[in-house]
């Protein structure tokens, strides 16, 4: 009798342990299914934002585990065209109101864009400024190889605005698709000077030298940002904008030479 009782007790314990094991497995399965799935936030941003947005990408991914931020940089006009043509995008950060208007005119943002920074042009020369460029008017000298952005790109439109205001006509050897391309021509010695943003000269460090000119203030540009309509990751897109316009984002932008948000 005692043996039978002992065997019964052992059998009961075995069933209890099996039941506990089953519950643990279900909890694990449930925990796994409840775990956050990897997500990708897609941002299109003006080329002049490369260094600052790369820094923000690292911060955002740290603060949002499982999220990958994919940023495509380029000329704002090209990026706007991609959105108008249906590219799946979450956030658009432009280097001018005009290029953002290309998107808002098609009703392709969820709300009115927010201005998060400003910028002005600066002349980039080779280190040491061997041609002695001291003013915007100097860029019209016939012996200089000058590079600018194409007129449909914000930095090119700003250059045209300054030409009109000053009566100085430039004859560039090439018109590039974005400021980074202009900067590359100067830093490699393929051009004597180029018109880029002051922030690009700062980011380039010793590879170029900057020449400030007062007329640049006549073509200061705004940087608007917005969540794109039907964004695949709309909630994350708004979190990104909150970071850009928040304390960390503004400190990062200001340190790079951008003007404050409006």
Automatic annotation (TrEMBL):
Binding positions for molybdate per the UniProt entry: 48, 76, 179, 197
Keyword Metal-binding applies: yes
First and last residue of the signal peptide: 1-26
UniProtKB keywords: Metal-binding, Molybdenum, Signal
Keyword ATP-binding annotated: no
Domain of life (superkingdom): Bacteria
GO terms (BP aspect): molybdate ion transport
A Pfam family annotated for this UniProt entry: SBP_bac_11
A GO term, aspect molecular function: metal ion binding
Family: Belongs to the bacterial solute-binding protein ModA family.
Designated name of the protein: Molybdate-binding protein
Source species: Pseudonocardia sulfidoxydans NBRC 16205
Gene that specifies this protein: modA
